[in-house]
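pls read this stuff:
=====
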Amino acid sequence: VIQAVFFGICVLTDLSSLLTKGNDTQEQERQMKKLISLRDWMMAVLAFPVGVFVVTMFWSIYIYDRELVYPKLLDNFIPAWLNHGMHTTVLPFVLIEMRTTHHQYPSRSCGLAAVCTFAVGYILWVCWIHHVTGVWVYPLLEHLSPGVKIIFFAALTIIINIFYLVGEVLNNYIWDTQK
């Protein structure tokens, strides 16, 4: 969903830029700046770190033991192309976007705070689903003790923050910019 919303905003930004080219009013310029800022923020804080996180974590765990993250039973309901759409294609598309469009990253402290907020919110959502249904969204969590879950969630939050920093460094390298 994050990727779909992000790329939808990218398309909207590009179309708006093309449709208003040459006859920009001050209001149109102001709106375009807001749209570009939203696009850049989403790339920095959500699309890149979450996209890279999903691909690396999903396939690492899948290769180790697919039943821990994507039980074979799901093959009956989710076709392979959709699984790859959710867990594979995210990475090349986000890298192509990073290479073709310069994104202005927020300050490092604001970016990391936003990534942490998202990670903690998602972890709380996963725990809430378990609290309400009694079932862990990710079967791997069934095998972890409460203390290990806390360490696991903390480690995942650190990893996604590292991916944020990798995205910032990669963006600066591609576009040869220094903060």
Notes: The helical segments are 2-20, 26-65, 80-87, 90-100, 108-133, 146-175.
